[in-house]
Amino acid sequence: MALVETVRGPVDVDTLGTTLMHEHVFVLHEEIRQNYPATWDETDRVDDAIAKLNALAVRGCQTLVDPTVIGLGRDINRIRRVAAGVPLNIIVATGLYTYEKVPHYFEYRVSRDGSTDPMAELFVGDIRDGIAGTGVKAAFLKCAIDEPGLTPGVERVLRAVCRAHAETGAPITVHTHPASGTGRDVLRILREERADLTKVVLGHSGDSTDLDYLLELADAGCLLGMDRFGIDVITPFEKRVATVASLCSRGYAESMVLSHDASCYIDWFPPEVIPMFAPRWHFEHLFDDVLPALRELGVTDAQLTTMLEVNPRRYFSG
Ligand SMILES: [Zn+2]
Predict the structure, then answer these.
(1) What pLDDT digit, counting tens, does each position of 130-166 carry?
(2) Is this model's pTM higher than 0.90 or not?
(3) Which residues lie closer than 8 Å to 30 by C-beta, 6 or more apart?
(4) Predicted pLDDT of residue 121
(5) Cβ–Cβ under 8 Å, residues 164 and 143
(6) Rounded to the nearest whole angstrom, what is the distance from the C-alpha of residue 262 to the centroid of ligand 1?
(7) 10 Cα–ligand 1 center, Å
(8) Bridging pattern class, strands 140-144 and 172-175
(9) How far is the centre of ligand 1, averaged over its atoms, from the C-alpha of 112 (Å)?
(10) Start-to-end CA span in the chain (Å)
């Protein structure tokens, strides 16, 4: 039996069921939240998250994969309080989210004499021993590369993630920026580091409608994160579903996972503007709109099960 770590402890991967592979419970700037507490009510926000995730569970989702790491406001104790009130499995990550530099903390904490990057050691500790003394273990690694491309900071984090992957076998999710083709940069480093490409989600690939780009990454063995349904301002709904359907018709259901990259609460935007620019950016959009539209375009129930259950299970199977 293969086990995967969740916030409430290890579970059999065969019980993960319908899995959203890239959603956030909270995305916060922790230092701003602490210093300007008027913007935050802990009890209200935790209760709101519990309500939203219970509503998602009612729709049939059984597992939520949360790639919130350092740089996005990870607070594992807060996630534990939410997890205690929802029937979902919540799987959490370790890693670092930056588009350019590493945080100053890591600038002078560097690998000496070819020894392990101290950053990678922290990631390994989160996977093996648990996060911040809670015993909650990260089950995957997360990093990012965006429009600035493979900056020295981004490359250092990506290589540290690969080293932690090599040491622990934990799978990897990378936030990519397909408009600048950064999936290819990631692939190059992953190959140099001899990462297991079948254990990698190239997140936000679904922002792209360029089939040549997507097929190149899928043929390398990676999973494509078609994981921003609802962010129609980047790529409209119709194009997102058409791209998934067309990859399915070419036999690539085994290369995709589906999600929204939505949050119970994100402080990047004033809350009232999100419904204005992205009215369908929420956890239920997949069930309300995306799955029916995919079926309409000829995607079979078996292919949907592959993307929502089989591929996540394979990704988290040791
Ligand atoms: Zn995300």
Answers:
(1) 999 999 999 999 999 999 999 999 999 999 999 999 9
(2) yes
(3) 73, 75
(4) 97
(5) no
(6) 7
(7) 23
(8) parallel
(9) 32
(10) 10
Cα of 23 vs centre of ligand 1, distance in Å, is 6
Helix-helix angle 211-219:237-249, to 10 degrees = 50
**In whole angstroms, what is the distance from residue 73 CA to residue 75 CA?**
6
Count of residues in the chain: 318
pLDDT at 143: 98
Q: Measured in angstroms, how far is the CA atom of residue 279 from the centroid of ligand 1?
A: 18
Asked if residue 64 lies in contact with residue 91, where contact means CB atoms within 8 angstroms, the answer is yes
234 φ/ψ sector (left φ>0, alpha ψ -120 to 50, else beta): alpha
Residue 47 amino acid letter? D
State the distance from the centre of ligand 1 to the C-alpha of 98, rounded, in angstroms. Answer: 12
Instruction: State in Å: Cα 298 to ligand 1 middle.
Output: 28
Q: Report yes or no: 206 and 244 within 8 Å, Cβ to Cβ.
A: yes
Q: What is the pLDDT of residues 184-225, one digit of tens each?
A: 999 999 999 999 999 999 999 999 999 999 999 999 999 999
Residue 236 makes CB contacts below 8 A (sequence gap 6+) with none
Q: How far is the CA of 14 from the centre of ligand 1 (A)?
A: 25
Cα–Cα distance for residue pair 2/292, rounded to 1 Å: 32
- Residue ranges in the chain modelled with pLDDT below 70: none
- Ligand 1 centroid – CA 22 distance (Å): 6
For ligand 1, the distance from its centroid to the CA atom of residue 115, given in whole angstroms, is 31
Residue 90 β-bridge partners: 64
Q: Rounded to the nearest whole angstrom, what is the distance from the C-alpha of residue 20 to the centroid of ligand 1?
A: 12
Task: Report how far Cα 20 is from the mean position of its chain's Cα atoms.
Answer: 9
Task: Report how far ligand 1's centroid is from the alpha carbon of 223 (Å).
Answer: 16
Q: Provide the pLDDT for residue 39.
A: 83
Order the strands of the 172-175 sheet from edge to edge: 19-20, 63-66, 89-95, 140-144, 172-175, 200-203, 223-226, 256-258
